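Deliverable D4.2, example record:
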Amino acid sequence: MSTADGAAPLASAEIPPLFADLADCPALVLAVSGGPDSTALLTLATRWRKARRRGPKLVAITVDHGLRPEAGREAVAVKRFARSLGVEHGTLRWNGRKPSAGLQEKAREARYRLLADAARKAGARHVLTAHTLDDQAETVLIRLARGSGVSGLAAMSRIAPLPGAADLLLVRPLLEVPKARLVATLRKSRIPYADDPSNRNPSCPPGFVGAPGPSG
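Output generated by the structure prediction step:
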């Protein structure tokens, strides 16, 4: 089965390899905004976990930057969906005065700090974000446009240290999956999702509502 744009939903057999190297973790924190990518991450991780006799505890976290009026409503929708899957959910807010300059960088620092706090509280060493193959390609193109050298053109890696938290790891399980296939997977199961502007900005990892949109 495929959608009108030709993308096929992920088959059941394709799901376990996405998370196989995380099977022995005690817990995993999933950054979920409610956009299509992160909703697919939550859906697929839950299906993988439920098919196992034992495995990591899943904790979905929504970071609300407080920069979009609809962010609170989206966070509530994520909470409702996570609970329907039997997954613990928490909404963390970036409170306080927002800077007039360097907003993107400060928001990035805030979300990673909040996710790190959530991971430590959950007893998790891994934070999962929903970067896709599309994000990978776009990141390389943006770096190329900025005149990055060969070393600067390196693509995102599946696993890397979580920024600002040397004791934690950032994992991108969907990095080799096209976004269209994730959307097709959600549509096949009739799972709704929000239009998350942060998912259209490579500098803003999926999983964060109320984040600043594309910078240009």
